[in-house]
Every structure is written in C-alpha cells, then in structure tokens.
Amino acid sequence: MTAATIPGLDQTPTTHQSLLAWVRQVAELTTPAEVVWCDGSDEEWRTITGKLVTAGTFVRLRQKPNSFWCASDPSDVARVEDRTFICSTYEADAGPTNNWMDPIDMKVIMTEHYRGSMAGRTMYVIPFCMGPLTAEKPMLGVEITDSEYVVASMHIMTRMGSKALALFGDDAEFVRCLHSVGAPLKPGQKDVPWPCDQTKYISQFPEERMVWSYGSGYGGNALLGKKCYSLRIASVIGREEGWLAEHMLILKLTSPEQKVHYIAAAFPSACGKTNLAMLEPAIPGWKVETLGDDIAWLRFGEDGRLYAVNPENGFFGVAPGTGWKTNPNAMRTLYTGNSIFTNVALTDDGDVWWEGYSEVPPDRLTTWKREHWTLASDELTSHPNSRYCTPIAQCPITAPEWDDPNGVPISAIFFGGRRATTIPLVTESRDWQHGVFLGATLSSETTAAATGQVGVVRRDPMAMLPFIGYHAGDYFQHWIDTGKHADATKLPKIFYVNWFRRDADGRFLWPGFSENARVLKWAIERIEGTAPAVDTPIGWVPTTGALDMKGLDTPVEDIEAVLEVDLDEWRTEIPLIEEWFTTIGDKLPTPLHDELEALKHRLA
Ligand code: SAT
Ligand code: MN
Q1: Ligand 1 in reach of 79 Cβ (< 6 A)
Q2: Pocket flag, ligand 1, residue 247 (CB < 6 Å)
Q3: 271 given a catalytic annotation
Q4: Per-residue confidence (pLDDT) for residue 522, from 0 to 100
Q5: Virtual torsion, Cα 333, 338, 342, 347, nearest 10 deg
Q6: What would the pLDDT profile of 55-71 be if each residue is shown by its tens digit?
Q7: What is the domain count for the chain?
Q8: How many angstroms separate the Cα of 350 from the Cα of each of 200, 330, 364?
Q9: 443 in a domain, yes or no?
Q10: Residue 346: which domain range?
Q11: Average pLDDT of the chain?
Q12: Distance between CA atoms of 208 and 201, rounded to whole angstroms?
C-alpha cells in the first residue's frame, strides 16, 4: 500500500506543515492499515476502550465505573533500563550513567525495525501537552503509536487531542515521540491481547527533542510523555533554559494556623512517594493536598522563588501495598472509576485485587498471568510493578491550584531513600550547595520490586539515575548553578529523609506513613525559624524533643536511635561516596568534591 492510499492519512486536522510531513513519513515507513488523529473526546475513549475489550486486552470492571483490568505479556512489565539509550551526538554528553549510541547508528537500526511494523494495525496520532494547556509556552508533543492501550492511557496521563492540537498553530515546536509495539499483523492474522516484540529500544535524541520507542507496550516505555519527555528530554531543555525537570512529587501542606507551604520530594521506587503525596497527617489540624506524585518541573518565578508544575494529568501508581490503611486517598480516587489497572488480579465479580488491597483476599482470583488462583496458592496475585492509571483531578485531596500554569512556590525539597542504617530520619542541609551534595549522593537499598539482589546500597542521585537525559556531572553542575543564580533567601531548603532506619534486630525505628507528617512539620518549623536542631557533621538534625510526638507512644530510645548520627557508620559511608564520585569522573563539579572533603574533615 502506498502512503497516498492509507485511509485517514489525508484527514489532517492541522495546518502545521512539519507535523503533517512527519506523520506522512512515519506512515510510509510503518505501513499501517489506517491513520487516526486522536481528538481526546469521551466518544474516542469509548471507541478505544471498546476495541480493547473486544480484542481481549481489557476486561471491563463491574465494580468500578468506566474502569478496566488489563494484563500485559509476562515479559513486558517494567521499564527496560538496559535497552534505554541517550543518543546525543557525543558520547561524553550522555555520560557514564546512561547507555549511549550514535544517533545516526541508532536511527539506521530502528528504522529497519519500524519498517512495516504497523502493518495490519491502526496508527494513532496523539497531540498532547505536558503541563497546563494555559501555560505561556505550552510544552507540546505528538506521540505516534500503534497501541490502543497507549491511546487510552494517554487520555488519562496527559492533556491530549483537539485541545492540545489547537495550540500547535502552523509552526509551534513539539517533541516528536514515535512508538510501535513491533508486532505487525499479516492479512487475516489474529492479534494477541498484548502485542510486543522481544527486541526493545527506548531511544532519546535530546538534541532533536525526539523519542523513538520500539517493542514494548508498557508504561514508561510506551507512554512517551512520561519519563522519556518529561524527564529525559525535559532535563536537557531545562539545562539550556535554566530550570529543573525532576522525579518529584508535589504536595501542599497547611498548618493549623492556615499557613501554606508547598513541598517537592524525590525518592527512588518503592520508597512511598505516592503515599507521601497523598498523606493523611497523623497530627491534628495539619492538612496535606496533592499536586503530583511523580514529576515536577521547577522554574523561577518573577519573585525569585522556585515554582513547581506537574506535567502530568494522571497518577500511574504502583498498586501492591496500596490499601485503605496505607493510602486511603488513592483508594478513593480509584473507587471513583475512569481507571486502567495493569497486571493486578481480577475477581470473579469484576473487580481488581492486589497484595495489600484488603486484609483478606477473595477465595478465587484470576492472577495477572491470567491463571486461576485460590487461597491455597502461594503465587503472588499481582506483579510487584503492577500499576493503576487514574486521573489526578478526581483525587479527593487534589489541590485546586494543581492546574495553575504558574505552578506553586516550593518551600522545601526532600530527598529520601531506603536505608537500614547510617541515614537519620531527617537532616537539613547547611545551604543549597550542601543540599545538592545530599541529593547527588542519595542512596537506597534495592527492594524485591526490581530484579537483582535485595538490600544492596545503590546511588540514585536525586532519584534521577535512569532519567537524567545528559551527563550526570553536568546535571550536578546545573543544580549548583541553579542555586548560584538565585537569591539564597528565596531558595527552598533542602532536607534528606529516611523513613526506613532499623535497629540491630531489623525492626523499623519509625512508624512511617501518616506519622511522616511529624517530619514535614519539623521541616516547616525550621523554615519558619521556630524548631530546634543540632549542628552535626552531616547537617542539621532535630533534637530529640524537636519532633512533635504527641499521641505516639514511640519509646524515646527509638527516637534517639532514628535521629542518631553514628560517626562510625558515616566513616564507612565515605568510601562508598568516593567510589560513586569516581564513577562520575572529571565532570564531577569541584564544589561537590569540596563538600565531600569538608564532610571527611568534620568526621575526623
Ligand atoms: O514505568 S514508569 O516509568 O511508567 C513508572 C515508574 O517507574 O515510575
Ligand atoms: Mn517514577
């Protein structure tokens, strides 16, 4: 079939010539059966989800309105970091923490994979906008995909369709996102519920503001507005334009005196980011509202403060462990409906279930592998990385300003990881540069949610290790410069938290979850200059009495232990930080080297 005869190709709802030319070029390469421009309407949602139900990809839930269960191919369940590439012209611009390939070589390889890859399928053109549509400079993108699952998910996760396309005019800049599951259909060939290819590529071309993804249908590999655009590509744009694209939740904290503070926080996976974003504070009178659970774009406002915008329109949260006890606001959001559940279990009466959803599982379930499950089975019902995808706007504690194009002024940035030892419950950095040092050396123990050994300490700078679109050393320098160019009194204060410290018997020293509000409260009181802290070699740590512990019966020894700065543990930490900094190489900014030397000196 020649391009001119592909149905739908000439139905072009835009006068943006370079967009039209690109769509035509992709259609000629991938040879789909038809081309559809997505308008983002409710009718389109009904058509697409209906098609997915007919194909056996989706099962319509009977217990949650307008919601669907979906199981992926068992091999296609998570981001594939070893298949993720930064294709900058020079390898030195990708740095030691990314896989790099020459952009020309990558295009040659991937072009051959894309050739004919959409045969027998529909090619969808999804215009979208990351962040508010009303932004002064809306952050536009177009994803071309042959996956209905992607179209349905993009309906939830982004502002997409006609309302985004209206902002393109004749020549607006946009990020080109190309995605194919890599499973062409021969005439008459029956489709599978989750088409994908064993070969996968997730390639970013930062200089061209372009993403090419092939072979996977899953989340961060396929919803290209998410990690690929809003972190990898946006981090490069942010460096050029003087702002930060970060892997951070955004929350609004209101005190009993009605004082409002906004907090952004970065944690590696499985450290409770979504739970913190939707916290129900354990201390009376304090209120948390949410603005985002995964990504924050931080830009300076005219008043010199740093403002955060969440580029996303939905939550793509880890399902296991989400329940009425751990995150009631997430549960309320999901019960509202309009959601897609991927790789969780399905109940006989048409509902979802996962480990932690409720205390007692139903007697019988269909697992994420589509297998029959009973209480006697010892298999997990849901994949540890199974996900819910649900609109932010329907979360009962979404702050009304979540869609404000100017964002919200950030008072505090939290970095956090999962560490059994060494890292106290909370440390306040001495200043911005020391805070950058804390973020750059952020570490976490691996959990069962990812493949590999459990309990190994890994560096995950700013929780951005797989998402920095350029050289990690340049990224640290950009963070330092961001502080240098600002009025220090207006910068957010930077804190380092660890909810996961344990005693010698492996028992958690801190209750976590809604009690974490006590740490937020202390941080706010530090900003307001009212809470006590001790000056330790690693930064400011609360005095034992500084945390509001009213209503908690945590023994004072536990509070002392969770706040302890153990100099011996820290001396053991130093070689690990040195090893990490060696990995970064020559581009490690001198100020971070100086911070390490100063820390060593204070510990000596
Ligand atoms: O796989 S995703 O990037 O979509 C989700 C995540 O890892 O946060
Ligand atoms: Mn994430």
Answers
A1: yes
A2: no
A3: yes
A4: 98
A5: 80
A6: 999 999 999 999 999 99
A7: 3
A8: 33, 20, 12
A9: yes
A10: 315-394
A11: 96
A12: 17
